[in-house]
Specification:
By secondary structure, the protein is mainly beta. 0% of the residues lie in helices and 51% in strands. The strands form 2 sheets. Strands 2, 4, 5, 6, 9, 10 and 11 form a 7-stranded mixed beta sheet that branches. Strands 1-3-8-7 form a 4-stranded antiparallel beta sheet, with no helix packed on it.
């Protein structure tokens, strides 16, 4: 079975940083495009960053320059470094296997003073 487990969320002040991690199993991670998506209060899912199997990346304009996505194929892990956090970054963050849209249970990020 495909499993995706996210962790690393928490409560942080504006301007702070967090590092999210997603550990996967049940599929060949290196052969898959992977993304981080988030759901803010009262909103739908939003794609914020992708790590493609060819080594390239994508960022939504709202996080470009502040967030960094990376992956470790040997560990089947996906990461998201969040810097200069803003209150509008408050959301549940999910790791997603793009081929099937499978997601984990998510990890909550709350940015508040």
């Amino acid at each position: 079975d495909v499993q995706l487990v996210e962790f690393g969320g928490g409560v942080v002040q504006p301007g702070g940083s967090l590092r999210l991690a997603c550990v996967s199993s049940g599929f060949t991670f290196a052969n898959n495009d992977m993304s981080w998506v988030r759901r803010s209060p009262g909103e739908g899912l939003k794609l914020i960053a992708s790590s493609f199997r060819d080594g390239t990346t994508y960022y939504d304009d709202s996080v470009k320059g502040r967030f960094t996505i990376s992956r470790d194929n040997a560990k089947a892990a996906l990461y998201l470094e969040l810097n200069n956090l803003k209150t509008e970054d408050t959301a549940m963050y999910y790791c997603r296997r793009d081929a099937t849209a499978a997601r984990g249970q998510g990890t909550q990020v709350t940015v508040s003073s």
